[in-house]
Each structure stands twice: as C-alpha cells, then as structure tokens.
Amino acid sequence: MTNNNPGQPVPVLLDGKWQTSNSTGTFQATNPTTGEKIATLFPISSWKDCELALQAAEAAFWELKKCGIEKIAKFLELYADKIDADKATLVELANRETGLPTAPRLGDVELPRTTNQLRIAAKATREGSWSLPTVDTKANIRSCYQALGPIAVFGPNNFPFAFGSLSGGDFAAAIAAGNPVIGKANSSHPETTKRFAELAIDAVREAGLPLGTIQLIYRTSHDDGMKLVSDHRIGATGYTGSRHAGLALKAAADAAGKPIYLELSSVNPVVFLPGALAERGEQLVDEYLGSVLMGTGQFCTNPGFVLVLDNADGQLWIERVAARFKAAPCGTLLSPAVQRSLTTSVQTLVGFGAKLLAGGTPVDGPRCAYSNTLLEITASTFVTNPEGFQTEAFGNAALVVKAKSVAEMVAVLKGLEGNLTGCIYSATKDNSDDAAYSQLAEIMEFKVGRMLNDKMPTGVAVSPAMNHGGPYPSTGHPGFTAVGLPASMLRFAKLTCFDNVRPHRLPDVLRDPPANAQTWRMIDLQWKQG
Fold first, then answer.
1. Active site residues
2. Are 392 and 378 within one domain?
3. Are 482 and 488 in contact (CB under 8 A)?
C-alpha cells in the first residue's frame, strides 16, 4: 500500500481497509544517522479512529471464536512466510528509521527471530497445551484458558521487528491465543510498522480470518491512549516503552480493571566477584564491553549497573573498561528523543554525585549520538540515594559501584528496584567466591526475572523456558513473560471453568478425547496427553 498523495499523511488500517485518518495532526520519523526528518507524513489519530478500531476489533473477536485454531495457525505461518519474502524491503525501511545495521542485526538476527516467533506461536495454537486444560472427572469440572478480547499493542523503539506492535512477541502471543490486535506503531519507525501491516492484512485475507483481526494506528494523544487501554472492549494491553508513559497508561487501565503488561526500565545489575576478576579480569573486560556497548546500549537487558569490590583487581578492571569506553567508536542512537533522554539521565547521575570516568557529552555532528559514558560511585554513596542512582541511562552508558566488602555489596543489592536480569560472575577454577555468591544470589534472585551466572544478559533466547519479565519497575507484573512461547500467551487469556457442561458443548481442548491427541492436559492431578 503506497501513499499516492505524498503531501498528505499515509492512511491508517481499520477493519481491513486503508483509509484516511480522522487525525488531529501529523508527525514525521527522523533518520538518526543524518538527523534529518523523513519526508513521509503520518497521522496522529483522533478518538474517532480509535472508536472505529475498537468496533471492528470487537466484531472480529466474536468471529475469531468461530474460525477455529487451524485458521489462526495458518495466518501466523503465512505471515511469517511473507515477512521472509519481504526481507529486503523491511530491512531497508528499518535501517533508515532506526539506524540499526542491516547486517547482521536486522537481516540476519532480528528478522529470523521474528518469523521464528510467529511459527512457534502457530505450533502452540495447534497443540493446545498452552491453555492448561484441567479436568476433574469425579466432580465433572473442567477448565482452560481462552481468548480474552481485543488486545492493544504498543511497540518499542529498539526492536522494530521482534517486538514490533504488529510483528513481535506480544503480537504473536495475542493472536495465537485467539485475540484481534490493534497495533500502535512506535513513532521512531512508523513506515516499518506500516509495511508489516500491509503483509499482515494480506495474510489475514488468505487465511480467512475476519478483517478486523489486524489494525494499525500510528500515534494518538496521551489522553486518547489512556482512553484506549481502559475501554470496555479492550481485553488487555501490551506495552514496551518509557516508564513515565507506561505508568500513565497503567493508571488508566487499572482504574478500569483492564490488564496491562508493561516493560518499563531496567539497569540489569552485574556483579564481578573478586575471584573472577583475579582469575580472568582482562577477559571480563572484553565480555562486558561486548555486551554494554552492543547496539549502542539500546537493549532492555543492557548491563548498565556494575558492582565490584574496591580492591586492586577491581580498580584495574574499572580503569581498563574506562579506557576501552574512550577508545571505542560511538554508535548511533535510535532517535533524537533517545539522545535527549540519555543526556538528561547522565546529567542527573552526575548531579547526584557520580564521577565521570569517560564520555558525558553528545557527539558533534548531525547524527543522533552520545559519547560512550562510564560513571562511578561508592557503595556508601549509593545507599544514600538508591532511587536516584538507578536512573536508567538508556544507551551507551553505565554506572560502576565500588564496594569495600561483600557486606556493602549486599546492602547495594537490597537497595535495587526490580530488574529484568541480574548476573554474578564468580571464580571458575576454585571455590573462592562460593560464600559471597550464596549471599548475593539469594538477594538478586528476588530482584530479577532472569538470573545469570558467568554470562552477559543481552541475548534473550526465544525459548519456552525464557523469562523476559521481572519485578516492578522492570515490568508491571512479576508473574509473566513477554518472551517465551507458550507462557507469554497467558497474558492475553482468561481462565474459564466449565462445571457440569455437556460434553458436546465443551471447547475442543476439554472434550474426551481432545481435538489434538498431542495436547497435554491435567486429568485428576496427573498430566497426560490426549
């Protein structure tokens, strides 16, 4: 779908039709590598667009319940095939809008991950075990998870494919659970999201799903965004983005009793124990640099908070990291907004008393860039203002905390907010770090969603065992994951109990036998297939 009127904003996708938006204004994306606005105009939708999307999504929800799981699975597979076939166009668009490298990042890593998620979602839909079918034969009571209702998905700026509002993990999980999706594009890459919508609506038609299954708007006012997530027709919302905007949406959704699953901010603490630094300090400099500066630090699992002992090995490690920060080229940030936010965060940390060891200034020139920045404080300083020193510096910046003892390390970890990940590096050739590890891990496990040992956190595997969630403020709820099918589907489902319901009136997954003989069900407290 091309825009035949380049002076006019592009259309929105509502109920299967590309149509002129009922807009309140327009916006443009920025090419972060040049700092220039991209010519295409995108509409800022009024509530009328949202109302039309909600009406269509509500109608589509009831139709989807009658379509059967095979059509939903077929859509997910067709869509994945179309994305693979359109790789060149998608990569070009995303590179222009985000500055992320075409290879390997976009074309060789993120796009295959995206289509893999969609195909795994299709498999989970067909197989059915995700719905946790449970049967009590004696009482004739059965239950399972079912589709919840229209899902609003707000995509982030840093993963235009794998977390995109109409392509990513939230989208795949919501559709696989049987829900229609209203996608709200991220303002950093609206053209990329629009291209996904074009491919998705073609797959919707080919699979025979209702046209309102997939819809797209690009931006709304803050008030209309809050109204959308709290509307009575919305089943739930998936949101990835800034803490400030996410909490405003959460307040609105909570007031209406609507589920909202948020990914907000995370500094992702990494602890280097003394035995590990003494044993392989130079190697750990390399491992840390490769992780913290990867993608210009714009990963939600970026290890931006480091804890080391203030001894000779710890000081040497810090000096080596600082030198490498200064020597490494500065990557391109995703947008002017990210650059402004990073500048403000670094200034905030310095204002609280953090010492600059490297960087601390924007990079001269038109592109969106900031110098690789390393800051340092002591553990005793941290505990005087733990909230302030956990200001997230999203980008190529990190804060090192020096502790005089393991006891001070314990105090620092106790002061941490919830995080997506936490990692402890310990000695591998002897047991010298075991006692310290035990003390610290006990606390860290309580503070994070994913605990790592001797491994950097930036790689998030698409695994059924993965947890890409964590305690607040990393996410809005500690019990759910945004990555890891089929578990991620449960966010967009409701538990339904069928008490004394006649067999032919039960959902297929609760009938004897179920429609798919491979489905795992808990029957009288024992897991069985079929």
1. 263, 300
2. yes
3. yes
